[in-house]
Structure formats: C-alpha cells, structure tokens
Amino acid sequence: MAAGNLAHLPVCSSDHRIRDDLPEDIFEHVLAFLPAEDAARSSLLSKRWRNAWTRARALNLSDEHHHGRRFLPFARAVLARYGSPEIPSLNVVIGRESSLGPGTVAWLRGAMERVVGSVSVTVTAPGGALDPLVLPPRLRAVSISLTLSGGGTGSKHGRLAFPSVSGAAGATSSYDALEELSLSRVQLQERVGASLSSWCPRLRKLRLRKVSGGGGPTWPLVVRMEQLEELEMDEVNSAVVEISTPRLETLIWHGGGFTKLISFLAGSQRSIRRLDGLCFYLPAKESRSFTAVRLLEVCSEANEISARIDIPEHCSPSWLSREVPKATAIAFVVLL
Amino acid sequence: MEVDKGKGEAEETRKVAEADRDTVTLKSSDGKLFEVSKEAAARLSTVLAGMIAGGSIDDNGTDLKQIGSEALENVVDYCNKHANSIPSAALISSSISFNTAPFKEPEEWERKFVDRLSHDALFDLVEAANFLGMERLLDVTCHKISEMMKGKSPDQIREVFNIKNDYTKEELEEIRQELAWAFYDD
C-alpha cells in the first residue's frame, strides 16, 4: 500500500471507538488457524460471520472427530462449500485407517488441484497409507509436503506416481509453480525418480525421507534442477543418485542408508555452503562409507560441515586432513 | 520507546533527509511519537518498507492516523523485540524448513508478548498489523485470537468477543442444519 493511501482510510482512534466485534477483514486470518469444523461453526456467531469461513486463508482438515467412514463426507462438504475455486492453503491429517481408501485419494486429488499456495498431507494412521496417489496433471501449489504412510511395524510406504500423459500436450506437462517438495514414507513408482526433475523444474527445496523405489533397489534418482538451493536426503534407498544443481547451498544427508553411487554434475558441489547430518562407519572399502567419504570430498568448499564418523582402529583417515581445512565451522565426532 | 518532542515541532510537516538515520519516527493518531529501528521496520512491515524506500518518511514523525498510541507502542515494541530475539532451535535444526505449515508456531517471546495484552489491545494490534502489512505480527495475533475461539460454543465465543447475535431463532436453526457436517458428538 502506498503512503498516499493512508489519508483516505477511516480514522479510528481507540479513544472513542466502541468495540463490539473483531474487524471483519481479519476473520479470514483468524479462521485459518482453526480446524475446519470450528471455522465453519463460526457462521453461527452473527451475520457478519455468516460466510467468513468460506474465505479462510487455510483449510485444516483432520479425521480426529470423524470415526468410521465419516471423514470423507465431511471433507467433501468442506470443499463443496468453500467460497473460492482457489484454496490458499490446505492441511490434511489422517489418523485413522478407516478414513483411507480410493475415495479419500480421489478427494485429495481434486482438492490439490484447487490449491494455489501450500499443500500438506500427513497420514499418521499406524499401518495405514494413502495408496496409490497419482498426482493430478495440473498443480498450481508453490509448496507440497506429503507423508503418505503412518509407519509402524510392517507398514508399507504409500505409492506415488506422476500422471500418465499422452499426446503432444504431455511433453510439456510440469508443475511450474512448485518451489518446495517434501516426500516422506513414499514409494516412488516407476520412472518417478528419473522424471522428478522434468516434472518439478523450479524446485528450490527438496526433501526426501524414507523414500523407496517401486522397481527394487536399482532405481535411479535424478536431481537435475537449476534453482535448487536446499536438498535433504534421509533413508533414500536409491542405488544411483545423480545431482546436478548449480545453486545448491545446503545438503543434508541423514542416516546410514547410503546410496552406492552418487555423482555430481555441472560443478554443483562448488556452490555447497553447508553439509549436515552425515553419519557413517568407516572402513572406506565398504561401498556405503565410500559414498559418504566421496560426499565429504565433493563438499570440501563448504564452510559449515557437521558429520559423525565412526572410525575403527585399523583405519587411517588421511583424507580428513586433506579435504576439510577450508571449512570454517566443522563439527566432527570421530569415534576411534 | 517514546520520544519527547515539542508539540509544535511535531505538527510541522517539513521533511528532513532521512537516509542517514538508523531509526524512523512514527506518529500515532493521538500525536505521540515513537522511534523504531529502520531495519526492523522495513523487514517486518511492507507498508513501512514502501514508505522508507519511497522517501515518504517524515523526520518529525510519520503520521499514522489510523493507529492509536497504545497499539503503535506495541508495534514498536514488537519490532524491537524481534530485532533482538535469538533464533529458536527450529531455525538451527538440521532440517530444511518448509512453508507448508499454516505458519510457524509462535516463539516463546511472541507468545508472552500477545498473552499480556487485553482484548481491546489485542484487537487494536491486529488492525495495526493488518494496516502496516506486518505479516508475522498479524499471524501471531490472529493465532492468539483463534486459540480463544477453539473448542468453544457460539455463546461462549460471543461473550468473549462481545459479538451481538443478530440472527432469529429460525435462522440459527437453518444454519445449524446446513452445518450438520461440522458437528460431531465426541
């Protein structure tokens, strides 16, 4: 708002105002913090509140209060009555296995297509999963975070696939607005790992946690993204990871589940300023720790490195002194 | 912090070059002057940032006729506290932060900051934050208001916020039926 507009707005000094209600234009902000049920029930307060919730800046849905198969009718009602075809922010938490199924997946696909800001879907139901989820062909969201399975013993990851596209239109399909993507407890279906970069060309942040591939452990993961600044990998069981990210600044690589082969292309390792979470057991002849050592080597330009390395007595980690001195802040825990 | 300046001087609209100063002076609807860090004001308020960039800041106190002195004092207090706060553990954790959550939970100091306000002061601050385009302060204050509504009956909420029920009995019943899906029995 330009300063020139200030004079035209009504003057309301707290001295002589009689406060009888909240200011109307902040209803949609307040309602964004409430569960959808509470937000909708605010219609009962007064006529000014009648349709305020249908403009709420965020919709927060959970099956906490909807037993059996009652979540889906509730979720459909919320979406049907929301005022605008565009939803700024959608947050869904599913904690009951009975709320999951093809109907919920179909509802979610429809809901995701309407979101122009952020989508967060979290399955917390033990042993349950949103499965399979085929993403809609068009997405306008800027930020998407999906946890497709509730975990627990013997539980499977939720399968995730890109839509199959055919014809000339398919060649140009991509989620151009998407800047942030987080996938947890997800099994990437065939070709998703390889085509992630073409579907999400403008990602700035990518986080993969407990992500597996559908075709066994040999699936390739290709992260070839011009804009990517932050990459976090945690228990990603891909055998081959190719990273080509000229703007990557932060690389976080958790857990011991190392990939067998990691390759950096286009000099992307030179931009990395921060390497975090690295934790591994050295003898370097073991292929996994070899990858970890390789990771340390390619990030030698970083000025913030946090790693924990278990080194047995017979190993002499000569690369430590050779590669690391450039970093100004290093947190190493080396157990001998 | 309030600056004690002569009333006559404060009334003048003559502009002084602001570029070299670290602070900006804001004037409330009731003529009181407050000084706030220019850096914090520009970072936290899109409107103040625009005014600073556009040179429409008045050295003798930029008029904010829409904001009373109590609300403006809270705005300035928030800006100063924000400038001095230490990043929380969440910001230095070894994970990427995403914008998918509706918003980042209030920090401890932000919670304390809004908890001590009276209802009227809170509502005035919401309006001031909205007016000045202070996204984070708007989130923190609106979140506080939502907490005061959560799990309460319409009657309880009306009482807390002094809302007048202008529906007829029949209208209320009609809405209640339309909203059957938003009620649950546990």
From TrEMBL, chain A:
SMART domains xrefs: FBOX
F-box domain ranges (all copies): 22-62
Source domain of life: Eukaryota
Protein name: F-box domain-containing protein
Species whose genome carries this gene: Digitaria exilis
TrEMBL record, chain B:
Bilayer-spanning residue ranges: none
Pathway: Protein modification; protein ubiquitination
Organism: Digitaria exilis
Subunit structure: Part of a SCF (SKP1-cullin-F-box) protein ligase complex.
Domain SKP1 component dimerisation as annotated: residue spans: 136-182
Domain SKP1 component POZ: 23-84
GO biological process per UniProt: jasmonic acid mediated signaling pathway; protein ubiquitination; ubiquitin-dependent protein catabolic process
Location of region: Disordered: 1-21
Family membership: Belongs to the SKP1 family.
Function text: Involved in ubiquitination and subsequent proteasomal degradation of target proteins. Together with CUL1, RBX1 and a F-box protein, it forms a SCF E3 ubiquitin ligase complex. The functional specificity of this complex depends on the type of F-box protein. In the SCF complex, it serves as an adapter that links the F-box protein to CUL1.
Alphabetical UniProt keywords: Ubl conjugation pathway
Full protein name: SKP1-like protein
Top-level taxon: Eukaryota
